[in-house]
Amino acid sequence: MPRLAVIAGLGALGVLGMPLLHPHPSGSTDRVTPGAVRVESESTVSVTLIDDRARLQRFEREYEVELATGSGFTVTPDGVIVTATQVVRSDKDLQVYAANRVFAEYFKVDVPADFDRHTVDDPDLNIRLQACYPPRTQNSTCNATVETKVTAFPYLDPALPEGLAAEVLSAGDTPSAPAVLKVNAGPKNNLPTVPMGTTIGAEVESVDVMTLATRPSAKAPPKMDTAHFDPPGSRNFKAAERDKIDKLIEAGAIGAAVIDDRKSEVVGVLSGGGSLPATVTPVDEIRTALVAAGVTPRRGPVDVVYEQALAAYHNKLYANAAPVLQQVLTLRQDHAVALDYLRVSKAKANTAEDAAKKKPSPVAVPAPSPGVASWIWITGGVVLVGAVMAGSVPFLLRRRRNGVDQQDTSGENHALVTSWPAQTEVYRTPNPGQPVMDISPAGGQPHVSNPGSNPGGTSKKFCTQCGMRLGHAHRFCGFCGHPSDAP
């Protein structure tokens, strides 16, 4: 278990630098394809014919009969596979086939090598032929035994030419029922698996059928065909698509995974063909069959890391996908899809096709909210500037007055001289009784006078506290409230 955590953690490290993008885009059936399996079953019939006409003779033969071929999918990393019962258990009677073959070969009569019961013209031979067919009785002239062999071919690269011998853990009573197989997955027990859904919901309409018409390889990957349920969730295909489904079944889609295109999960298994209608066995029945066989579907470390690689690959972040795909191959070096995607990622990494190398689009600056008019923002700014200026003027004047006070106290200066254009103003000194300097118009000379020595003239008075102009005969400053020192 610690090893599992480390492996999954290593895979996660490969995507830490990626943007948080959708891990697996809608309709991405390559979540499922690594778990595709081709299933082939054949039987060996051993038959003994007994001829007691002249002397007792035994004629023994062995025949190999191909039962069925189809598709399937892996549901656990240690090699549990699901397909349709009709792929591993034929409804044809192999003992009848063996009787026809051995009788025709021994007695040199024309009996077709098929699964039907026949008659011959010779009455004595016909009695013996009918006694050769099952069931076996005391008068039977033939004795046959059947041994069925099932082989699974996972989608790997390089392909397994001999496949993997599969044991049938359970099979259903009908051809469409799920059959549960088990193969030896090797010491690592890390075959790729498929993600399984829980039910066919009412919203499931678009599906994909995953078919392996031949033994899989890099040149013969699973084939995906889209179909639609009508109505959604009904498991009935649209009338216009039924011919297509029948052709898929004939081409090897018996036992194929039916995939919900929206979630990329297996939601059923396909069966049918011949006299049997196309049938989708839902995923809840598959899960029931697995429980009856003592199996719980699960995914392995190779699946976890592989899906992390898909997140980067599908978003064209090839430089980021390559090391994670390499980690998949460290866990399973013959993972067919990871090998293919790694080749693509290495070829496109750090090129113009790599989304990580493209310049990001400029971000548009949002316009001001339409709920607040622009003139309100402008007016507010003007008011704010005015408030700052109004508050700073008294402060600056107070600092200037304090400077004059310090000069008067030291005895160095007793008057403040300021140039105001084209007018004469009288500034009163902060201390009553001190001389005041008149500032004459341009060209005139300033002179010192005493307070009240300006008979007949008018003077402007200023507050000794804040420096603002005093109104005529005001006893208090209208700005700061300080008492006026005017007589």
Automatic annotation (TrEMBL):
Residues 216-236, 426-456 are annotated as: Disordered. The chain crosses the membrane at residues 375-397. Residues 447-456 have a biased composition (Polar residues). The keyword Metal-binding does not apply. SUPFAM superfamilies: Trypsin-like serine proteases. It comes from the Bacteria. Keywords: Membrane, Transmembrane, Transmembrane helix. InterPro entries: Peptidase_S1_PA (IPR009003), Peptidase_S1_PA_chymotrypsin (IPR043504). This is Uncharacterized protein.
